[in-house]
Request: fold
Amino acid sequence: MPLYTLWQSGTAEQIILYGLHCTGGDILIALSVLIGAALVFGRSNWPIKHSTLVLGSMLLFGLGYTIYSEWLNTVVRESWGYSALMPVLPPLGTGLSPLLQWIVVPLVSYLYAHNHIKGHGILET
Reply:
């Protein structure tokens, strides 16, 4: 939260509520891009096979949506803003933290699931 202006201007209640709201939204976005990627690129034997194709497309869908949503909400709607602590990437000024979130969280989740499936003998090696 210190990467957003709400951290300085909001009350403790606002910070908690916005944090919960945004976390819930991120979960819905992640589920949507995973389902979309699985529908477009998954096959009948997914996730045993084709999981990297689904993961790659999920990452691209998630990054694309994040760039659009961050631009829409910080520039057009001005629904929220970045604090001076948030590194931003040109040309749209998208925050580095939201972009990294859509790379790190899916990759860690994929690796965990892959190792779990492989450890139970489900994954064909």
